[in-house]
Design brief:
Rossmann fold, 6-stranded parallel sheet, about 425 residues, 17 helices, alpha/beta
């Protein structure tokens, strides 16, 4: 409680306080949504700041106070405050790309009869399957998935529809639009006219989406569990963390060995951008230093590409690689959904991290020889042959980019539909 009071006063001291709520038809839920979707520059909107360290503006007047007092002991204070801003602003539509936010789901469930909500898929969200397994295997008593509620969910592909139905997440309407970030990347590349230059610089035989994990890493929603369930999760977490570390270590060294033995060009785009996440960048580099086999160190260092989020280096790397290898990154879906070949490797023995498409594109725990054999088979295949060895069309996991009707165009149409009601 004391910590919360301290945070509250620290926010209060640094913020601008306004007594008049902006009257806008469109509200953006969370600053990160604004930063990742370029099309919002075409609209008049206000931002709902939802993270304590990002809050710069606080709104307060008698109407907000009345709403808070009426609901004070029913929900958390900050949730009530956000609800009051939405209702008193007269917003017709709330948009967010923070699709795993339980706070957003709570507000959606309560207000969707008065205001329309659009939630955009931001990542592959394997954590939903993990929460499902926690509950079905009785590691936890509460089914956390019952807390999620989506009114209009803009997703990568058909898989989300099937998966959400299976695990019981409430969604009123699905729209298959693909990945907004991929559309942002293609538009950026076309604007810069850098396609030819990118092919030369980022071309590789294999792109490895090397991942890393930190001890104590938790999923976004874990704090929503009860104290009893948290204690059970803590007991089971150590094994999961060990398996993840072993998975990332094995995949990294298998790929380095294969590329060295076959004289192939490898590119490893780092996941964290030093400019935006200095600590994450250092954690990633230190993880690699610790687990790369010493005999591969020199080759690894030559293959590692420093991330520039502003220049879409990860997207350029997968776009210009003959084969992309990884664990569970959304970039695997971007690649296979846009006429590319991938190999998703889950060596953890946890089924919830399996790639949604079965066939030659996915591989579970195996020897180096089997790993090497699978890559050789994929590399020898034409793209048509590769498709024939999958149990679903790639559009199942990622709607293909269409220049005349890309994800941004689809989003614009849906936004205008609800603003013009």
């Amino acid at each position: 409680m004391l910590k919360k009071i301290f945070i509250f006063f620290r926010i209060l001291l640094r913020c601008n306080i306004f007594f008049k709520i902006p009257k806008k038809d469109l509200a953006i839920f969370d600053l990160k949504t604004l930063n990742s979707i370029k099309t919002f520059s075409n609209y008049d909107f206000f931002i709902l700041e939802t993270r304590p360290h990002e809050i710069k503006n606080i709104y307060f007047n008698l109407n907000i106070l009345n709403y808070i007092l009426k609901n004070l002991f029913k929900r958390k204070l900050f949730t009530i405050y956000l609800e009051s801003l939405i209702l008193l602003s007269g917003a017709k539509l709330i948009i967010s790309k923070i699709d795993n936010s339980l706070k957003l789901s709570e507000i959606t469930k309560r207000l969707k009869k008065k205001v329309n909500f659009i939630t955009i898929q931001n990542a592959s969200r394997y954590e939903y399957l993990q929460h499902y397994e926690f509950f079905t295997k009785k590691i936890v008593r509460e089914n956390l998935l019952n807390k999620y509620d989506f009114q209009n969910y803009l997703v990568f592909g058909k898989y989300e529809k099937e998966n959400f139905k299976k695990i019981g997440i409430k969604v009123d309407n699905f729209y298959e639009i693909g990945n907004i970030q991929w559309s942002n990347f293609i538009e950026y590349q076309n604007k810069k006219k850098s396609i030819t230059e990118d092919k030369k610089f980022f071309a590789s035989d294999i792109c490895l989406l090397a991942e890393y994990s930190n001890p104590g890493e938790t999923w976004h929603a874990d704090n929503a569990y009860s104290a009893y369930d948290k204690s059970n999760l803590k007991r089971s977490r150590k094994e999961k963390e060990n398996r993840l570390t072993e998975n990332h270590k094995t995949l990294l060294n298998f790929t380095l060995r294969f590329c060295i033995e076959n004289s192939l060009k490898l590119i490893i785009p780092s996941k964290r951008d030093k400019k935006y996440d200095g600590k994450g960048y250092l954690d990633e580099i230190n993880f690699f230093k610790k687990y790369v086999d010493k005999k591969y160190t020199s080759f690894f260092e030559k293959s590692l590409l420093t991330k520039s989020r502003d220049d879409y280096t990860s997207y350029k790397s997968i776009q210009n690689s003959d084969l992309v290898i990884g664990f569970c990154s959304t970039l695997l879906k971007d690649k296979i959904g846009n006429n590319g070949k991938i190999l998703s490797c889950n060596f953890t023995n946890y089924d919830f991290w399996n790639f949604p498409i079965n066939g030659i594109c996915s591989l579970n725990k195996c020897s180096y020889e089997k790993f090497s054999d699978r890559i050789n088979k994929i590399r020898k295949m034409s793209y048509i042959e590769y498709l024939n060895h999958l149990d679903h069309n790639p559009s199942y996991v990622m709607t293909k980019y269409d220049h005349s009707n890309n994800s941004i165009h689809k989003l614009d149409k849906i936004i205008n539909k609800y603003l013009n009601l």
